[in-house]
Amino acid sequence: xxxxxxxxxxxxxxxxxxxxxxxxxxxxxxxxxxxxxxxxxxxxxxxxxxxxxxxxxxxxxxxxxxxxxxxxxxxxxxxxxxxxxxxxxxxxxxxxxxxxxxxxxxxxxxxxxxxxxxxxxxxxxxxxxxxxxxxxxxxxxxxxxxxxxxxxxxxxxxxxxxxxxxxxxxxxxxxxxxxxxxxxxxxxxxxxxxxxxxxxxxxxxxxxxxxxxxxxxxxxxxxxxxxxxxxxxxxxxxxxxxxxxxxxxxxxxxxxxxxxxxxxxxxxxxxxxxxxxxxxxxxxxxxxxxxxxxxxxxxxxxxxxxxxxxxxxxxxxxxxxxxxxxxxxxxxxxxxxxxxxxxxxxxxxxxxxxxxxxxxxxxxxxxxxxxxxxxxxxxxxxxxxxxxxxxxxxxxxxxxxxxxxxxxxxxxxxxxxxxx
Amino acid sequence: xxxxxxxxxxxxxxxxxxxxxxxxxxxxxxxxxxxxxxxxxxxxxxxxxxxxxxxxxxxxxxxxxxxxxxxxxxxxxxxxxxxxxxxxxxxxxxxxxxxxxxxxxxxxxxxxxxxxxxxxxxxxxxxxxxxxxxxxxxxxxxxxxxxxxxxxxxxxxxxxxxxxxxxxxxxxxxxxxxxxxxxxxxxxxxxxxxxx
Lengths: 420, 196
Known about the structure:
CATH class of the largest domain in chain A: Alpha Beta
CATH class of chain B: Alpha Beta
Strand order of the largest sheet of chain A: 3-2-4-5-7-6-12
Oligomer: heterodimer
Largest interface: A-B, 23 and 22 residues
Structural class of chain B: alpha/beta
Strand content of chain A: 15-25%
CATH superfamily of chain B: Pyruvate-ferredoxin oxidoreductase, PFOR, domain III
Number of domains of chain B: 1
Structural class of chain A: alpha/beta
Radius of gyration of chain A: 22 Å
Order of helices and strands of chain A: EHEHEHEHHEHEHEEHHEEHEEHEHEHEHH
Strand order of the largest sheet of chain B: 2-3-1-4-5-6
Largest sheet of chain A: 7 strands, mixed
């Protein structure tokens, strides 16, 4: 049923349709509305699940692990510092092969403390062994929850559904929510591969020494390889049953004849498409490659999508997080994907643009300017979108001028306030 | 695309108002997007929310910087720097006030805009009368519907009824206040047009 609905609410209602048996949560902005709504549904008796308020995110993930090991379908949601706080347990869930689903309402990580959106949180856990899916719209954020449970349980691997905090979680837009019957037909009851059962006791979580650790870890690698097959199969099945495209490995937008392709994850793909349409009207052959599945990284699919075109092409990777000392996380994976085999397309120039950190809006004007600069060959290999160079230079000057230059964040804010 | 920016104070329901407008537009089979300004909002602090309405899916997610309409829910914000920033030349402004536009010191702004596009509506008074609480969101939207015709009153009333479906008295009060504001602005527009 089509509704005009807040993203968090759409996700909560969809998660409820997935019949989770255990929901554990600790509130953190901008994720809170999701678990609040689920909590209310459990309290009203609309959703038959165990809802656990826990004392921290570490406990939230630990409960998800325990519930999953006991054979229950487990769900939690978090963001930012909350995700970092549960990080040890995040690795454990994947290492143990316990298939819970977690929604991450993407928010940056301090310091400086900031409640707004970027992808720093999820990117920090990219090697934890979880499958990571990124939603472009609230429709996709809702649809991915259903697909996530199916993928997680089929592979016995936890899945993280990433949706941009505030931009999606707090935005009201049109979402087609499925019926219970539709979800039931798509998502069978959880059939655990391993379960703690008093009638058939096993232990889960053995200590493994050097004699077999590599082999157990190899299986994690193998599971991700399988995920690259399961995710598109689930996407296809979802499309057949629900009549719309959501999920999968990649999304291509007007790439066929494109000389320039913007690569991005999440909701920024919307304004990127707007900018591309506008520039195409002016004759610029631009397109977009959306990465829906970031872990496992769909290297082969990227190679196929970008082809072995011999024309000179530019890829502009729009990074929603910063890897200090390295640049952009997505760029690294993309370069590796294109460099395998016979060396990849030789005529490809890759630009990294760090954009929208800590909630700075990624505007159509800025995107248009970025694409045009790339097209004209004046976009640097690495840059920050809309960086206020004057503010940065002011602080760099202070740092050079005096040893005790003080805290940079405060200095910059003071400088900014002094302008008005 | 029709873009609206709401200005108010934390606790006045600016976010709810933007969502109600989106919901009303959705009922008319249009695409709509509503979102808050994402601050760490506090009761009484100035807050913003946004709504976009279009005939096709809306992909942009940046704040509304060039609004077609401004809804100013708290007249004490009127002289805040930049409140009318980016307003389109033919844009609408609706101010919540018991005083007329001339008394609010908006003559200069009115000159820049077409007659009948800048109006005041006593939304708080109407809300107190019909709802019993000083929450101007619904009557502001009633006035907005009359002023801009961007959504119909019926769609707005249906959105209000759905939003407050579990609280019939709140739904009835908000609906009555929205209707009263719609009538008020309709009458004002007749007067303005006569004098033009």
